[in-house]
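Action item from last meeting closed. Structure (281 res):
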Protein backbone atom coordinates (compact mmCIF):
# COMPACT_ATOMS: atom_id res chain seq x y z
CA UNK A 1 0.00 0.00 0.00
CA UNK A 2 1.45 3.36 -1.10
CA UNK A 3 1.97 6.04 1.57
CA UNK A 4 -0.55 8.86 1.54
CA UNK A 5 0.47 12.46 0.79
CA UNK A 6 0.00 13.16 4.52
CA UNK A 7 2.59 10.55 5.58
CA UNK A 8 5.51 11.82 7.70
CA UNK A 9 8.52 13.13 5.82
CA UNK A 10 10.82 10.29 4.74
CA UNK A 11 14.06 10.10 6.71
CA UNK A 12 16.68 7.94 4.94
CA UNK A 13 18.71 7.84 8.19
CA UNK A 14 15.81 6.66 10.36
CA UNK A 15 17.17 4.12 12.84
CA UNK A 16 14.43 1.55 12.13
CA UNK A 17 15.07 1.82 8.40
CA UNK A 18 18.83 1.49 8.84
CA UNK A 19 18.33 -1.45 11.15
CA UNK A 20 16.09 -3.19 8.63
CA UNK A 21 18.64 -2.63 5.86
CA UNK A 22 21.40 -4.17 8.01
CA UNK A 23 19.22 -7.14 8.94
CA UNK A 24 18.23 -7.77 5.33
CA UNK A 25 21.85 -7.53 4.23
CA UNK A 26 23.17 -10.13 6.67
CA UNK A 27 20.24 -12.39 5.77
CA UNK A 28 21.40 -12.28 2.13
CA UNK A 29 24.79 -13.65 3.11
CA UNK A 30 25.34 -17.40 2.72
CA UNK A 31 25.13 -19.69 5.73
CA UNK A 32 28.50 -21.34 6.30
CA UNK A 33 29.02 -24.42 8.52
CA UNK A 34 30.58 -23.10 11.72
CA UNK A 35 33.27 -25.79 11.74
CA UNK A 36 34.33 -24.88 8.18
CA UNK A 37 34.64 -21.08 8.35
CA UNK A 38 37.88 -19.72 6.88
CA UNK A 39 39.86 -16.82 8.39
CA UNK A 40 39.00 -13.30 7.19
CA UNK A 41 39.95 -9.77 8.27
CA UNK A 42 37.85 -6.90 9.65
CA UNK A 43 35.14 -6.39 12.27
CA UNK A 44 31.36 -6.71 12.16
CA UNK A 45 28.54 -8.90 13.38
CA UNK A 46 27.45 -12.50 12.98
CA UNK A 47 24.54 -14.82 13.65
CA UNK A 48 24.54 -18.51 14.61
CA UNK A 49 21.83 -20.91 13.41
CA UNK A 50 21.17 -24.27 15.07
CA UNK A 51 20.69 -27.34 12.86
CA UNK A 52 21.34 -30.15 15.35
CA UNK A 53 18.99 -32.69 16.90
CA UNK A 54 18.42 -31.55 20.50
CA UNK A 55 14.69 -31.85 21.09
CA UNK A 56 14.21 -28.56 22.95
CA UNK A 57 15.69 -26.66 19.96
CA UNK A 58 13.58 -28.54 17.43
CA UNK A 59 11.50 -25.46 16.53
CA UNK A 60 14.60 -23.62 15.27
CA UNK A 61 15.82 -26.35 12.95
CA UNK A 62 15.27 -25.49 9.30
CA UNK A 63 14.48 -21.82 10.04
CA UNK A 64 16.40 -18.60 9.52
CA UNK A 65 15.97 -17.60 13.17
CA UNK A 66 19.35 -17.18 14.87
CA UNK A 67 20.08 -18.78 18.21
CA UNK A 68 22.78 -16.20 18.92
CA UNK A 69 23.87 -12.81 17.57
CA UNK A 70 27.41 -11.61 18.22
CA UNK A 71 29.68 -8.75 17.27
CA UNK A 72 33.28 -7.60 17.31
CA UNK A 73 34.39 -3.98 16.93
CA UNK A 74 37.56 -2.92 15.16
CA UNK A 75 38.29 -0.52 18.03
CA UNK A 76 39.36 2.97 17.04
CA UNK A 77 42.29 4.44 18.92
CA UNK A 78 41.94 7.21 21.47
CA UNK A 79 43.33 9.63 18.88
CA UNK A 80 40.56 8.91 16.39
CA UNK A 81 42.81 7.08 13.94
CA UNK A 82 41.21 4.72 11.46
CA UNK A 83 40.94 1.15 12.78
CA UNK A 84 43.25 -1.56 11.52
CA UNK A 85 40.93 -3.57 9.31
CA UNK A 86 43.62 -6.17 8.62
CA UNK A 87 43.02 -7.65 12.08
CA UNK A 88 40.71 -10.65 12.32
CA UNK A 89 38.52 -9.23 15.08
CA UNK A 90 35.26 -10.78 13.93
CA UNK A 91 36.79 -14.09 12.90
CA UNK A 92 38.57 -14.35 16.26
CA UNK A 93 35.30 -13.70 18.10
CA UNK A 94 33.54 -16.39 16.11
CA UNK A 95 36.44 -18.76 16.79
CA UNK A 96 36.23 -18.10 20.54
CA UNK A 97 32.55 -18.92 20.54
CA UNK A 98 33.13 -21.98 18.39
CA UNK A 99 35.47 -23.20 21.12
CA UNK A 100 32.76 -22.70 23.77
CA UNK A 101 30.32 -24.68 21.63
CA UNK A 102 32.74 -27.59 21.27
CA UNK A 103 33.27 -28.01 25.04
CA UNK A 104 29.85 -29.31 26.22
CA UNK A 105 28.97 -32.95 25.76
CA UNK A 106 25.78 -32.28 23.77
CA UNK A 107 26.99 -29.65 21.26
CA UNK A 108 29.48 -29.47 18.40
CA UNK A 109 30.33 -26.75 15.88
CA UNK A 110 29.01 -29.01 13.11
CA UNK A 111 25.53 -28.46 14.60
CA UNK A 112 25.61 -24.79 13.55
CA UNK A 113 25.76 -22.50 10.55
CA UNK A 114 27.04 -18.93 10.71
CA UNK A 115 26.37 -15.79 8.72
CA UNK A 116 28.61 -12.76 9.12
CA UNK A 117 28.74 -9.20 7.84
CA UNK A 118 31.84 -7.00 8.00
CA UNK A 119 30.99 -3.43 8.97
CA UNK A 120 32.39 -0.15 10.16
CA UNK A 121 32.13 0.19 13.94
CA UNK A 122 29.45 2.86 13.64
CA UNK A 123 26.98 0.30 12.26
CA UNK A 124 27.84 -2.73 14.36
CA UNK A 125 25.78 -1.93 17.49
CA UNK A 126 22.83 -0.81 15.37
CA UNK A 127 22.97 -4.02 13.33
CA UNK A 128 23.10 -6.19 16.44
CA UNK A 129 20.12 -4.37 17.94
CA UNK A 130 18.15 -4.80 14.69
CA UNK A 131 18.72 -8.57 14.70
CA UNK A 132 17.83 -8.90 18.38
CA UNK A 133 14.61 -6.93 17.94
CA UNK A 134 13.56 -8.79 14.81
CA UNK A 135 14.05 -12.29 16.23
CA UNK A 136 13.50 -11.64 19.94
CA UNK A 137 13.91 -13.47 22.18
CA UNK A 138 17.21 -14.65 20.65
CA UNK A 139 17.82 -17.59 22.99
CA UNK A 140 21.52 -17.39 23.75
CA UNK A 141 21.52 -13.59 24.02
CA UNK A 142 18.58 -13.24 26.40
CA UNK A 143 17.06 -16.40 27.89
CA UNK A 144 20.09 -18.65 28.12
CA UNK A 145 22.55 -16.33 29.76
CA UNK A 146 26.15 -17.46 30.10
CA UNK A 147 27.28 -18.21 26.54
CA UNK A 148 28.68 -14.96 25.26
CA UNK A 149 29.85 -13.20 28.41
CA UNK A 150 33.17 -13.28 30.16
CA UNK A 151 33.68 -16.11 32.68
CA UNK A 152 32.24 -15.21 36.10
CA UNK A 153 34.23 -15.42 39.29
CA UNK A 154 35.73 -18.78 40.11
CA UNK A 155 33.92 -19.41 43.42
CA UNK A 156 31.67 -22.45 43.60
CA UNK A 157 28.84 -20.27 44.87
CA UNK A 158 28.55 -18.41 41.62
CA UNK A 159 25.48 -20.20 40.27
CA UNK A 160 25.63 -22.21 37.10
CA UNK A 161 24.23 -20.24 34.16
CA UNK A 162 21.23 -21.47 32.20
CA UNK A 163 23.51 -22.08 29.21
CA UNK A 164 25.90 -24.24 31.24
CA UNK A 165 22.95 -26.07 32.80
CA UNK A 166 21.48 -27.01 29.43
CA UNK A 167 24.92 -27.63 27.90
CA UNK A 168 27.10 -29.06 30.70
CA UNK A 169 30.79 -29.72 30.17
CA UNK A 170 32.60 -26.38 29.99
CA UNK A 171 35.58 -26.20 32.32
CA UNK A 172 34.56 -22.76 33.57
CA UNK A 173 31.37 -24.22 35.07
CA UNK A 174 32.94 -27.26 36.76
CA UNK A 175 31.87 -27.68 40.39
CA UNK A 176 29.39 -24.82 40.37
CA UNK A 177 26.10 -25.07 42.21
CA UNK A 178 22.92 -25.30 40.17
CA UNK A 179 21.08 -22.35 38.69
CA UNK A 180 19.27 -20.24 41.29
CA UNK A 181 15.95 -19.95 39.49
CA UNK A 182 15.26 -22.86 37.15
CA UNK A 183 15.38 -26.65 37.12
CA UNK A 184 16.37 -28.39 33.89
CA UNK A 185 12.74 -29.16 32.95
CA UNK A 186 11.75 -25.52 33.61
CA UNK A 187 14.63 -24.32 31.42
CA UNK A 188 13.55 -26.54 28.55
CA UNK A 189 9.99 -25.22 28.74
CA UNK A 190 11.35 -21.66 28.84
CA UNK A 191 13.33 -22.36 25.67
CA UNK A 192 10.39 -23.91 23.85
CA UNK A 193 8.07 -21.02 24.81
CA UNK A 194 10.68 -18.54 23.56
CA UNK A 195 11.00 -20.34 20.23
CA UNK A 196 7.22 -20.27 19.74
CA UNK A 197 7.30 -16.48 20.08
CA UNK A 198 10.23 -16.22 17.63
CA UNK A 199 8.15 -18.13 15.06
CA UNK A 200 5.16 -15.78 15.33
CA UNK A 201 4.49 -13.15 12.67
CA UNK A 202 5.44 -9.59 13.69
CA UNK A 203 2.59 -7.59 15.16
CA UNK A 204 0.67 -6.69 18.28
CA UNK A 205 -0.08 -10.29 19.25
CA UNK A 206 3.59 -11.22 19.13
CA UNK A 207 4.57 -8.08 21.06
CA UNK A 208 2.03 -8.93 23.77
CA UNK A 209 3.26 -12.52 24.05
CA UNK A 210 6.82 -11.29 24.27
CA UNK A 211 5.91 -8.84 27.02
CA UNK A 212 4.17 -11.59 29.03
CA UNK A 213 7.12 -13.90 28.49
CA UNK A 214 9.65 -11.35 29.75
CA UNK A 215 7.56 -10.69 32.86
CA UNK A 216 7.13 -14.35 33.74
CA UNK A 217 7.96 -14.73 37.44
CA UNK A 218 10.89 -16.87 38.57
CA UNK A 219 10.60 -19.37 41.39
CA UNK A 220 13.87 -19.19 43.29
CA UNK A 221 15.65 -22.44 44.18
CA UNK A 222 18.39 -21.11 46.48
CA UNK A 223 20.26 -18.01 47.55
CA UNK A 224 23.08 -17.08 49.88
CA UNK A 225 22.11 -16.34 53.47
CA UNK A 226 23.44 -13.68 55.78
CA UNK A 227 27.07 -13.45 56.79
CA UNK A 228 28.60 -16.14 58.96
CA UNK A 229 30.30 -13.74 61.37
CA UNK A 230 33.70 -14.29 59.82
CA UNK A 231 33.72 -18.01 60.69
CA UNK A 232 33.48 -19.25 57.12
CA UNK A 233 31.42 -18.96 53.93
CA UNK A 234 27.83 -17.80 54.10
CA UNK A 235 25.25 -20.57 54.50
CA UNK A 236 22.74 -21.12 51.73
CA UNK A 237 18.98 -20.77 52.03
CA UNK A 238 17.21 -23.42 49.94
CA UNK A 239 13.63 -22.72 48.87
CA UNK A 240 13.06 -25.79 46.71
CA UNK A 241 14.95 -28.71 48.19
CA UNK A 242 14.01 -31.33 45.59
CA UNK A 243 15.15 -29.13 42.69
CA UNK A 244 18.32 -28.14 44.57
CA UNK A 245 19.31 -31.74 45.31
CA UNK A 246 18.34 -33.15 41.90
CA UNK A 247 20.06 -30.45 39.87
CA UNK A 248 23.31 -30.59 41.85
CA UNK A 249 23.29 -34.39 41.63
CA UNK A 250 22.91 -34.06 37.84
CA UNK A 251 26.07 -31.96 37.73
CA UNK A 252 27.86 -34.22 40.24
CA UNK A 253 28.33 -31.35 42.68
CA UNK A 254 29.58 -32.46 46.10
CA UNK A 255 27.31 -30.87 48.71
CA UNK A 256 28.99 -32.47 51.73
CA UNK A 257 30.87 -29.28 52.64
CA UNK A 258 28.02 -26.88 51.78
CA UNK A 259 26.08 -25.50 54.75
CA UNK A 260 22.44 -24.84 53.90
CA UNK A 261 19.04 -24.78 55.52
CA UNK A 262 15.50 -24.76 54.18
CA UNK A 263 13.64 -21.49 53.90
CA UNK A 264 11.09 -21.15 56.69
CA UNK A 265 12.83 -23.75 58.85
CA UNK A 266 14.80 -22.34 61.83
CA UNK A 267 18.53 -22.90 61.60
CA UNK A 268 20.01 -25.44 64.00
CA UNK A 269 22.36 -23.81 66.46
CA UNK A 270 25.82 -25.21 67.00
CA UNK A 271 26.61 -26.88 70.34
CA UNK A 272 28.65 -23.83 71.37
CA UNK A 273 25.82 -21.42 70.54
CA UNK A 274 23.28 -23.59 72.37
CA UNK A 275 25.37 -23.58 75.52
CA UNK A 276 25.82 -19.80 75.43
CA UNK A 277 22.07 -19.25 74.90
CA UNK A 278 20.97 -21.71 77.58
CA UNK A 279 19.30 -20.23 80.71
CA UNK A 280 21.81 -19.65 83.50
CA UNK A 281 21.41 -20.89 87.07
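Sequence:
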Amino acid sequence: MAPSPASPQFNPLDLDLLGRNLREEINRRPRVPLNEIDPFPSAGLYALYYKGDLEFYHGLKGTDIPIYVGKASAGNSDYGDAPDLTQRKLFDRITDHRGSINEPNNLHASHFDVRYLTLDDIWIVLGERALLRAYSPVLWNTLMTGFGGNPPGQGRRNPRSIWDSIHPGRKRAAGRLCNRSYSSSEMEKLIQDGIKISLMDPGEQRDEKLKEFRNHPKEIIWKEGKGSGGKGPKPLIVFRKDAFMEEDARFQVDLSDIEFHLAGVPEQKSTEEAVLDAPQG
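Note appended to the action item: The two ends are 92 Å apart (CA to CA).
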